[in-house]
Amino acid sequence: MKTRAKSALIMAPLLVIVFLGGYFLVAGVVLLTVFALREFCTAFGEKKPARWVLWTSLCILYACFFIPGFDSFVLFGFWLFASLVLCFLSMFAVEKRDLAQGMTTILGVVYIIFLSFHIVLVDNAYGGSDIVVGVFRFSGLDSYVWLIALAAFGTDIFAYFTGKAIGSHKLCPSISPKKTVEGAIGGVLGSVLLCGLFGYFFIPGGLATCIIIGVLGGIVSQLGDLSASVMKRKIGIKDWGAAIPGHGGILDRIDSVLFTAPLVFYVLAFTEAFGSL
Amino acid sequence: MKTRAKSALIMAPLLVIVFLGGYFLVAGVVLLTVFALREFCTAFGEKKPARWVLWTSLCILYACFFIPGFDSFVLFGFWLFASLVLCFLSMFAVEKRDLAQGMTTILGVVYIIFLSFHIVLVDNAYGGSDIVVGVFRFSGLDSYVWLIALAAFGTDIFAYFTGKAIGSHKLCPSISPKKTVEGAIGGVLGSVLLCGLFGYFFIPGGLATCIIIGVLGGIVSQLGDLSASVMKRKIGIKDWGAAIPGHGGILDRIDSVLFTAPLVFYVLAFTEAFGSL
After folding, report:
1. What is the pLDDT along chain B (277 residues), one digit of tens a residue?
2. CB B25 within 8 A of CB B123
3. Does residue B81 sit at the A interface (CB-CB below 8 Å)?
4. Residue contact B81–A111, C-beta within 8 A
5. How many Å apart are CA A131 and CA B275, to the nearest integer?
6. Any chain B CB within 8 A of the CB of A64?
7. CB contact under 8 A, B269 and A71
């Protein structure tokens, strides 16, 4: 528990990054993505993805994002098409590469690069009040990016303690033997509680949206966790890495964030489109 | 050769569909996609994708497309996120499914559903003069969708005959032993010729764009062909299917189209954005 507490401190800089928002957050997300990709590649051993494709795909995505005034749908489609073509090109070295490697490369592109990019999208579109200090703009405390973290980590923590306290019915023993139904429900309630409190104090006008995000985020957060468990179990590893003592790798830490980030973005985008954010 | 000629007739209805455009083309593309997905699934044998994920992903994509007035970037991102979550959900049956199956499912989503959808995108945005007959609107002969077919099949045919006539330097014997450098160059020239003629007669204002598409289309068309060869070689099959006698399966016929369709769409979108279509 002491190691875990120490490791939690390592995550503290992330809070500062969410507060700062903008380019700081982009830099932070890129850094996290790079570390996650490295762990992802290492974990696959022999069947490891083509690294150069992943790095190029990452560069294209963020370069597209910074072209101003362009239809983002076109850029986004272009990025996925270009990444896919690169994946295939990497397979042209037929003697060297397996079909599985082509597929793990595509998985790296969509699972890590695409999903983590939604943190940037949320900050960009729903990044809060933009506190201006000199030439800098900060996202501040009313940025919706906080919900990504609150839903993910709130679910994690509440599920853990609820499961410990009253857990008795196994949730899905074949994937994750320790998880219980009670823990899962506690996790969702915890996510709703934290997201609701956040909405109440920082975005009163969007309280209903925050609560909806709390419910759905609590669910997909656990799906994200279980999805990672399935992959790790199939690869035959316990953790993706060992970057954070007591917590496994970076990717182990953000597996639920990879699912809550898109969820937050699409709930906000749909709410905005249907007129009641 | 006689079987091939007969089979070419089977492809004729596709010409009518391109001419009609609109909902007819959507229906045609969906049908092609469904057949291609079926062949794709069958080809993988034991490691076959989760079919229900592919069907659901296809439905979500086309449903999103028909929501009017919505930011297509959001819908598109949502579709990819939802498809990815479904892929992972299909893996939750850990005893039943392999990691490879999760990855072939994702490959099916991006390689077949995503790429073939660009035919609809081209028709939707650059579908020609919209001939109105009663309640119907037809895309006609000046639809840019024709370029998708001209680049793909033009390259194919010209590469084949140039290679036969003067081919001597092997292009990439480890992937496709019969292909020659001369054939590849002839293919690109053929694509430029056909796309150029098409532009000259039907879209004079966009002749330069048509020629650019001819050049790039001639290249990516062959990359599409080689990418499919790599996959088939790795899986250990010669053809994806046997739907069209003498031509293999539907997927064998459209493997270059899967690459030229996005190319045509992004070249047109970029040209439009930079102001000189």
Report:
1. 456 565 566 667 788 888 888 888 999 999 999 999 999 999 888 788 999 999 999 999 998 887 766 668 888 899 999 999 999 999 998 788 888 888 999 999 999 999 999 999 999 889 887 787 777 778 888 899 999 999 999 999 999 999 999 988 999 888 888 899 999 999 999 999 999 999 999 998 889 999 999 999 999 999 999 999 999 988 888 888 877 776 788 888 889 999 999 999 999 998 888 765 4
2. yes
3. yes
4. no
5. 36
6. no
7. yes
